[in-house]
Design brief:
The complex is a heterodimer of chains A (769) and B (176). By secondary structure, chain A is an alpha+beta fold. Chain A has 17 helices and 31 strands. Chain B folds into two domains: 11-88, Beta-grasp domain (Ubiquitin-like (UB roll), Roll); 98-170, DNA polymerase, domain 1. Chain B has helices at 34-41, 98-105, 115-128, 134-140, 152-171; strands at 4-5, 8-9, 11-18, 21-29, 60-63, 66-69, 82-84. The chains are: A alpha+beta (769), B alpha+beta (176). At the A-B interface, helix 1, helix 3 and helix 15 of A face strand 2, helix 1, helix 2, helix 3 and helix 4 of B.
């Protein structure tokens, strides 16, 4: 277990493990998540969803639902007064399917009733007549299939061409890789409460990742001015990208406006699996060439990501996949083509790592292949190619910030291997765990290594900003921001930053909502520490400057001589020493600041350009034990080093790293949304397996590499995504090491190991065809 | 009983005993789980609704002293049994139990949706086994899914709570 060293500082400012302000209500069970809300006279809503991945709707009979006692409203596409569609990048997704359905789970109607079971029964009683069609479910076939949607099946094709297209090194390795569909599988189901307002508007209390972008989409569908659609952040039970898109927000508001009563919707777990976007499954072809010293000469790649039925954020995901397709390495020549396609599979969009996870699995497998062909140690091969500050990416962008790739590799690789072996471990700790299935002599250890990286913040010319307000009144600081806390601990950091800048202990965080403050941007892309951290810092600095100016003016002291330390305004030579309340002299100081990062640009037609703001890097070394007969894998340990810029809260950074690694481990060995002709086969926590405490390996944080990042508030980089990028690749590399199998697909399933090993062992004539 | 008729489902009345207090439930459908009754009829929303099929432990409660998932128990079947929820394990006046204190101090809480269920599970574990090994802790909480933390800080919190009880026990002269 990772043991934290003593924090470098104590107190409630920066650089120490300050407790999260919502910790006490959360452990007491009193914290109100979106599913915990209630209102007087509240109704329950439920959505009727398509059971088919592709069908025309040729009949819709609502009467059986409307006739049911306790049913207050049944609505469909006809009841959407404004835009009939919505979407993060392009409004291509219907609020309610009306003519065709394009994926299993697509909403067709919504019901409000007195009791949640009545709402479910009523939705089930609606008679929909379908003309079922053959779905497009293969992403490669989608390229030439009939269009799933009027906007076509190619969502974006991103090409990156760098250097000499004819360049080739003496050593070439080639491989095809595949990654299955991962689900964010947050614990708190999609839920919200809509309350109709006296002005004809609506107050929506919902778990989301960006209240202002929800407001824009919802108000367009409701045909209401934005200020009459007031979004309030309700407690968020995890997000990981799945709450970037709208789920039931529009339908819920429509039900409330139609019934004139508060309406609540809480998804069941199967609805949650059907009702939010997933990580894009990917097919990847790679060809790497290198010189005889292992230095990369060229990387070629063709990537296909299945975006499912609607666009969501697929264009940004596939652009990221292309940008990071060659890994954190110096690659002088590159030819990458990444395509996101539309199919009748469930829509895919944002998940932690956002396009960087899929390609890392591919390029790191290639680096291991190259190391094997050249007879070079895999860690050494990576070091020979490691990017550093001043190097160019395959997009031509020069890295101007910290890029301690060699440092994360070196410190992670130096981790001592974990003690223990299959002969001495308790049975419960062996592969198969509580089933006690393993034969000790058939368990093998393996070690694998991987490095990954991705961008921080929004890219490609997006106007990315965050707004925050600082108010100092009677010695209390109130911070107002619409930034969304999803569990990552932004609420802790906002308080830490305010205390650090103003030296005031009492910091109150106002509600995160659309009213009264501008957008804070999305809680995604590892961006809130930088963006909202930056906005909070700037607003607090502005208040501090005004306070000091007021004191200086009142006392006739040069402002430059005044300092704010530990909650006191002091000027030693002038004999000034006032606490903040005295210094303010009854005045209230309030400043609102909008913080922007440096502008970025779109990639050009050759995929070249300064599309990104900053990058974060991490290395992972996994140790696994594999039951060679049953194909079961126990991940024993994941060691890691990460480029973090600056550690603002050590405990929270470690929490992000461990949590991110758990999702990476899950993707390596157990997590896959299994599809059958467009149908999700395992939409439950019984069948979609995520790591339990018994599955989760020890995480050994070897180094938090601290090189303050230029432009980042306090030098801190976001830390949420890098743990999820290369941990999957490292675990699969370790399984390859233990088994000798090629294993080109993640997650690695038991049959991928056991059947292949059994076939390799079997005499030629008994092999299965 | 509880079957659908033209007038809707038959409705039930029964008593529940939760955290030592008796509640009367009336007008309930038979299909209502104990979790639904706790949350929506009694207003006890500490037990959480994550999977609704007994896989995730977010709704962990004690029924007659046995750790159960409230989502897989019919509320009517829990009538007149002794139910304890997170609310019943939480001190009044904003104070924290030693387990709750350890969860906050050790960084075991992120989104917090799994947290109440985990606190109930850990309470059950430490009341049976005051000094569990790491593997015993992992097994005991393996029925409680957490998606945020990777369990590292949760394990640290459980060991911290066990250690504080051990220290308190030694200080009181209790046998180790």
């Amino acid at each position: 277990m990772t043991t934290l060293e003593s924090p470098p500082r104590t107190g409630n400012g920066l650089f120490s493990s300050v407790r999260r302000p919502d910790g006490v209500p959360k452990v007491r069970g009193e914290f109100a998540f979106s599913s915990d809300l209630e209102a007087e006279g509240m109704l329950w809503g439920h959505l009727l969803r398509s059971p088919h991945p592709s069908a025309a709707i040729i009949g819709l009979d609502l009467a059986p639902a409307l006739q049911m006692p306790g049913v207050r409203a049944v609505i469909t596409d006809e009841h959407v007064p404004g835009s009939k569609t919505y979407g993060l990048d392009e409004p291509d997704q219907p609020v309610f399917a009306s003519d065709v359905v394009r994926y299993v789970g697509e909403p067709i109607a919504a019901v409000a009733a007195d009791h949640p079971e009545t709402a479910r029964r009523a939705a089930a009683a609606i008679v929909v007549t379908y003309d079922v069609r053959e779905p497009v479910v293969d992403p490669e076939a989608a390229l030439t299939a009939d269009p799933v949607h009027p906007l076509g099946n190619v969502l974006l094709r991103q090409r990156i061409l760098r250097g000499d297209p004819q360049a080739v090194g003496p050593v070439v390795v080639e491989g095809s890789y595949e990654m299955g569909t991962q689900d964010q599988a947050f614990m708190g189901p999609e839920s919200g409460l809509a309350v109709p307002g006296p002005d004809g508007g609506v107050d929506l209390y919902v778990a989301t990742q960006w209240v202002h972008v929800d407001q824009i989409q919802i108000s367009a569908c409701l045909a209401l001015p934005a200020d009459q659609v007031r979004i309030h952040l309700a407690g968020v039970g995890g997000a990981f990208g799945a709450r970037e898109d709208l789920s039931m927000q529009v339908q819920l508001c429509l039900l409330a406006l139609r019934t004139g009563r508060p309406v609540k919707i809480v998804y069941t777990r199967d609805e949650s699996f059907l009702g939010h976007v997933h990580r894009h499954p990917a097919r990847m072809w790679y060809r790497h060439s290198a010189d005889l010293d292992g230095r990369l000469v060229k990387v070629e790649s063709r990537l296909i990501l299945d975006g499912g039925a609607y666009l969501s954020s697929s264009t940004a995901v596939v652009s990221n996949a292309a940008c990071f397709a060659a890994g954190p390495y110096r690659v002088p020549n590159a030819d990458v083509e990444a395509t996101a396609v539309r199919t009748n599979n469930p829509p895919c969009g944002a998940m932690r790592g956002f396009g960087a996870v899929q390609v890392c699995f591919g390029y790191e497998a290639q680096m291991d292949k190259l190391a094997a062909v050249l007879g070079i140690d895999p860690v050494d091969l990576r070091l020979r190619n490691a990017l550093s500050t001043g190097d160019d990416l395959i997009t031509g962008q020069r890295i101007t910030g910290a890029a301690p790739v060699a440092e994360v590799i070196t410190t992670c690789a130096a981790a001592p291997l974990p003690a223990g072996d299959p002969e001495s471990e308790p049975e419960l700790a062996l592969p198969g765990g509580a089933s006690r299935a393993a034969e000790r002599r058939r368990v093998r250890r393996g070690v694998g290594f991987a490095v990954g990286f991705k961008n921080l913040m929004y890219s490609g010319g997006f106007d990315d900003f965050s707004t925050a307000r600082c108010r100092l009144e009677d010695g209390t600081v109130t911070i107002t921001s619409a930034a969304v806390e999803v569990g990552q601990g932004l609420v802790t950091l906002m308080g830490q930053i305010a205390r650090e800048v103003l030296g005031v202990e009492e910091v109150v965080l106002a509600e995160a909502a659309t009213a009264g403050i501008g957008s804070a941007g999305s809680t995604s892309a590892s961006r809130q520490t930088w963006m909202t951290g930056g906005a909070v810092e700037a607003s607090c600095r502005a208040v501090r400057a005004r306070l000091l100016a007021a004191v200086g003016g009142r006392l006739g002291v040069d402002v430059a001589a005044l300092a704010l330390r530990s909650g006191r305004v002091v000027a030693a030579e002038a004999g000034v020493d006032l606490d903040v309340v005295e210094a303010a002299a009854g005045e209230i100081f309030e400043e609102t600041v909008t913080f922007r990062h440096v502008p970025t640009e779109q990639l050009d037609e050759k995929g070249q350009g300064n599309a990104h703001v900053s990058f974060a890097f991490a290395a992972h070394r996994a140790v696994v034990e594999v039951d060679l007969d049953l194909g079961l894998v126990k991940v024993v340990e994941v060691a890691t080093s990460q480029d973090v810029g600056r550690v603002l809260n050590p405990l929270q950074v470690v929490g992000q790293i461990e949590g991110g690694i758990s999702q990476g481990v899950g993707l390596a060995v157990m997590e896959e949304l299994v599809m059958d002709h467009g149908r999700v086969c395992n939409a439950s926590f019984t069948d979609y397996i995520i790591p339990t405490a018994l599955d989760m390996p020890e995480v050994a944080v070897q180094a938090l590499v601290e090189i303050p990042e230029p432009g980042a508030p306090f030098g801190a980089k976001g830390v949420g995504e890098p743990p999820s990028i290369s941990s999957t690749a490292a675990v699969v590399a370790a399984i390859r090491d233990a088994t000798g199998l090629e294993l080109c697909r993640a997650p690695v399933r038991p049959q991928d190991i056991a059947l292949r090993l059994a076939m390799a062992r079997a005499p030629e004539e008994t092999r299965m065809p | 009983m509880g079957e659908l008729s033209d007038d809707g489902p038959a409705l039930l009345s029964y008593g529940l005993r939760v955290n030592g207090r008796r509640y009367e439930v009336s007008g309930a459908e038979l299909c209502e789980s104990l979790l639904y009754a706790l949350r929506e009829r009694l207003g006890l929303r500490g037990p959480k609704n994550a999977c609704l099929e007994g896989e995730c432990g977010s709704c962990s409660v004690l029924i007659d002293g046995v750790l159960e998932c409230a989502c897989t128990v019919l509320a009517a079947a829990a009538a007149d049994r002794d139910v304890v929820t997170i609310e019943g394990l939480t001190p009044a006046d904003g104070e924290l139990s030693d387990i709750q204190e350890a969860f906050v101090a050790e960084g075991a809480v992120q989104c917090g949706f799994c947290t109440p269920g985990l606190v109930v599970s850990v309470h059950d574990l430490l009341s049976r086994n005051p000094a569990p090994t790491d593997l015993e802790v992992r097994e005991a909480i393996s029925g409680n899914l957490c998606r945020c933390t990777g369990y590292g800080r949760i394990l640290a919190a459980v060991h911290a709570a066990a250690a504080s009880r051990g220290a308190a026990g030694r200080a009181a002269g209790a046998p180790l």
